[in-house]
From TrEMBL:
Keywords: Allosteric enzyme, Carbohydrate metabolism, Cytoplasm, Glycosyltransferase, Pyridoxal phosphate, Transferase. GO terms for biological process: glycogen catabolic process. GO terms for cellular component: cytoplasm. Belongs to the glycogen phosphorylase family. This is Alpha-1,4 glucan phosphorylase. Signal peptide: none annotated.
């Protein structure tokens, strides 16, 4: 390995920063703000001091960015998201400010290893997967392309759980990321807002008995307190704000109850407030879990809106100008209660009439839909919604009446279509449809890939699209190249700089200059050396954490994402079992060595997803210990998948698994990250895979399986998976091995239910796509055998991925949805 492959350097000029002066500054911060002398400082002390030194430099830019937007009366974007999977911020900020080299040298002069302390920074546990990581990429891109924005979310104390694997099973533990504090954030006690739940609604009439307004009198009140984190863009041009809300009780302790001996009851109110910002996505299989989830969504939505309106009124004095000065964006369905809450604030607090309030609301909100799965388009039982938010229930009914009257007036909507449009699902248990509320209350509804957007029009929002045909538009997702190339793959970045210069650092479109080098043998060898170094880094991590030795010369075949049946980790595992059988049955064949990596978390209450994790680990245990395989196949499940782990695994991947059932993945962003780092993709024509195929070329991606239309036809025509399985010897044998207990001798029936589901209904088309998937994998083996061909294709992928930058996506949002100049 050459130093160019493994070193990490700044890609910006270091602003003439003297490392000696920087070291002195670190010592001052360590002493006067940390209370520590260098001789007794711990690694965490050095980490905190280093962050605060750089944070101080960010603050000047942060203040000037905020003041500039205020002075120029610029339109601001307010991005509401229940998740922000920001990961570690230290390298992000140091790199974007061009301080990496100087900080390394300064710390080294103090006897401190930069990489050691950087590894101590925890991943902020503020997200679950792609939705939260997209929000984080968007925040960085908005700062980079100079869009003034406040991101709003919840400051989860534990957030998404920490995953451990015990005897192959997922175990959920608290992710205590705030144990050592968070040196990036600032508590804003002056930005605290009351949040109410429950109670009753009273009507106020004038002397003539005419209704003047409504007054909601909640029986429960908590406080939302703001914590701000600066988000710095590339070259530090703009610094935006991520504002996260923490729950706090107005009465932390009921002293009378405590003194009376009721020590638990005395803290009940404090505990209820604390629960609002304790854990991301509480299990909602129980009524209590559903209630907490709805409380969380309302909690952060109302705090954010109160903050936005207060800021707007202080500057402009009139809420009629809100749509011209504020664009409020709902990132998925979770914050859609904000539509009803903004109406409540406009009607009941600020005295607007219904028509004005509804017009302002629709022109202010925009909504991104991220899924076609019915369970992810949240809905709440009417009794729960009405008990927690009685005034909002009234407003939802009022909005609904207006929409349904509008639809009936058009004269071409059937009764079934009217029911589909309604904000209230009347079938069975009456529920409030939050996706419909977000759609009705927004002027723009966007999908996140071209395919997803068209499916929105045809499926979940078909009738609302008919009623409002101009609202749905597409904004294909993107990723920030700073995090997902420059920072996580310094070897490839250095190689690209050497080959094509530095222009791509500021304009990622310039990465296309690498395309011509795919036919250059010398460049391919350097590219392969970078990949090899990245694979060695992952191999070392796996050896250290799991005690599993993997060969970096083998193909690294990686599927890392949330564990869900539609993402079809099960298809990948079954193919691994079939390959295992083939290697043992045909040792004479020239098999290509392969390591199948898995990583991802299953929702705590998602039984089948947790069973899939156990199956992956059971298969790994058997395959990895079988000498007859001769090391040609290994299976590895890497626990606790998060952003930092992704930053190691994605640059190391040779093959990226994007194998969801066609028509079910809205976009995906992992597919983009893998390809930008030089992995080839095996995938279905689903989500953004469709557009990736168009950009990288048919010859540089491996597509298999049913299309969206074919999936729909199979389901409509009485698909019989049993016949399909019977006609596929490899699939049948693999399922027989799994279901009979070959991989679970301690519990032979462990996977019977999982495999029976494939025989009986196979909703996710695992059996239907298996032969095509397995055949494509063997074609991939043949390409892998031809190393120059493989790396040429990999280079084409890197060179042709610039369109999938989140900078491009944000510019489209700004110009076409938010009406903000960029």
């Amino acid at each position: 390995m050459t130093s160019a492959v493994i070193s990490e350097t700044s890609f910006l000029p270091s602003e003439n920063i003297d490392p000696k002066e920087l070291a002195d500054e670190i010592l001052r911060v360590l002493k006067y703000r940390g209370g520590k002398d260098a001789t007794v400082a711990t690694p965490h002390d050095w980490l905190t001091a280093s962050i605060k030194v750089v944070r101080d430099r960010i603050i000047d830019r942060w203040v000037s960015s905020t003041k500039e937007a205020y002075d120029q009366s610029a339109k601001r974007v307010y991005y509401l998201s229940l998740e922000f999977l920001i990961g570690r911020l230290m390298r992000d900020a140091f790199s974007n400010l061009g301080m990496m080299d100087a900080m390394r040298e300064a710390l080294s002069s103090l006897g401190v290893d930069f990489d050691v302390i950087a590894a101590l920074e925890p991943d902020a546990a503020l997200g679950n997967g792609g939705l939260g990581r997209l929000a984080a990429c968007f925040m960085e891109s908005m700062a980079t392309v100079d869009v003034p924005v406040h991101g709003y979310g919840i400051r989860y104390v534990n957030g998404m759980f920490r995953q451990e694997i015990r005897d192959g099973w997922q175990v959920e533990l608290p992710e205590n990321w705030l144990d050592h504090g968070n040196p990036w954030e600032f508590e804003r006690r002056e930005r605290a807002f009351e949040v109410g739940f429950g109670g009753s609604v009273e009507s106020v009439t004038d002397a003539q008995g005419r209704l003047e307004r409504h007054i909601w009198k909640p029986t429960e009140r908590v406080l939302a307190v703001a914590y701000d984190t600066p988000v710095v863009g590339w070259r530090g041009k703009r610094v935006n704000t991520l504002r996260l809300w923490a729950g706090m009780s107005l009465d932390p302790i009921l002293l009378a109850a405590f003194n009376a001996g009721d020590h638990i009851g005395a803290l009940r109110e404090s505990n209820k407030a604390d629960a609002l910002s304790r854990v991301l996505y509480p299990a909602d299989a129980t009524p209590a879990g559903q209630e907490l989830r709805l409380r969380q969504e309302y909690f952060f939505s109302t705090a954010s809106l109160q903050d936005i309106l207060q800021r707007h009124l202080s500057q402009y004095g009139d809420l009629h100008s809100l749509p011209d000065k504020a664009a409020i964006h709902l990132n998925d369905t979770h914050p859609s209660v904000a539509v009803a809450e903004l109406m409540r604030l406009l009607l009941d607090v600020h005295g607007l009439d219904f028509d004005d309030a509804w017009d302002i609301t629709k022109r202010t909100f925009a909504y991104t839909n991220h899924t076609l799965l019915p369970e992810a388009l949240e809905s709440w039982p009417v009794p729960l919604f009405e008990r927690l938010l009685p005034r909002h229930m009234q407003i939802v009914y009022a909005i609904n009446a207006q929409i349904l009257i509008e639809a009936r007036a058009k004269g071409d909507f059937s009764g079934e279509q009217i029911s589909s449009i309604s904000l209230i699902n009347e079938g069975g248990e009456r529920r409030v449809r939050m996706g419909n509320l977000a759609f009705a209350g927004s002027h723009s509804i966007n999908g996140v890939s071209a395919l997803h957007t068209e499916l929105m029009k045809e499926t979940v929002f078909a009738d609302l699209h008919k009623l409002y045909p101009t609202r749905i538009n597409n904004k294909t997702n993107g990723i920030t190249p700073r995090r997902w190339l420059i920072q996580c793959n310094p070897g490839l970045t250095a190689l690209a700089r050497e080959a094509i210069g530095d222009r791509f650092l500021d304009d990622i479109d310039a990465i296309s200059d690498l395309d011509a080098l795919a036919s250059d043998a010398a460049f391919r060898e350097k590219f392969a050396a970078v990949k090899r170094a990245n694979k060695q880094r992952l191999a070392s991590l796996v050896s250290e954490r799991l005690g599993i030795r993997v060969d970096p010369s083998a193909m690294f075949d990686i599927q890392i994402k949330r564990i869900h049946e539609y993402k079809r980790q099960l298809l990948n595992i079954i193919e691994a079992v079939a390959l295992y059988d083939q290697i043992r049955s045909h040792p004479e064949r020239d098999w290509m060595p392969r390591v199948k990596f898995f990583g991802g978390k299953a929702a705590p209450s998602y039984h089948n997803a947790k069973l899939i994790i156990k199956l992956a680990n059971d298969v790994a245990r058997v395959v990895n210990s079988d000498p007859s395989v001769r090391g040609l196949l290994k299976v590895v499940f890497v626990p606790n998948y998060n952003v930092s782990l992704a930053e190691i695994m994605m640059p190391a991947a040779d093959l990226s698994e994007q194998i969801s059932t066609a028509g079910m993945e809205a976009s995906g962003t992992g597919n983009m990250k893998f390809a930008l780092n030089g992995a080839l993709t095996i995938g279905t024509l689903d989500g953004a895979n469709v557009e990736m195929k168009e950009h990288v070329g048919d010859d540089n991606i491996f597509i298999f399986g049913l299309t969206t239309e074919e999936v729909a036809q199979r389901r409509a025509n009485g698909y019989n998976p049993r016949d399909v399985i019977a006609g596929s010897p490899e699939l049948s044998q693999a399922l027989s091995a799994i279901s009979s207990g070959v991989f679970s001798p301690d519990d032979p029936d462990r996977y019977r239910e999982l495999t029976d589901g494939l025989y009986q209904h196979d909703w996710f088309m695992v059996a239907a796509d298996f032969d095509s998937y397995a055949d494509t994998q063997r074609k991939i083996d043949e390409v892998w055998r031809d190393s120059p061909l493989w790396y040429a294709k990999a280079i084409h992928n890197v060179a042709r991925m610039s369109w999938f930058s989140s900078d491009r996506t944000i510019r489209q949002y700004a110009e076409e949805i938010w009406n903000v100049p960029v």
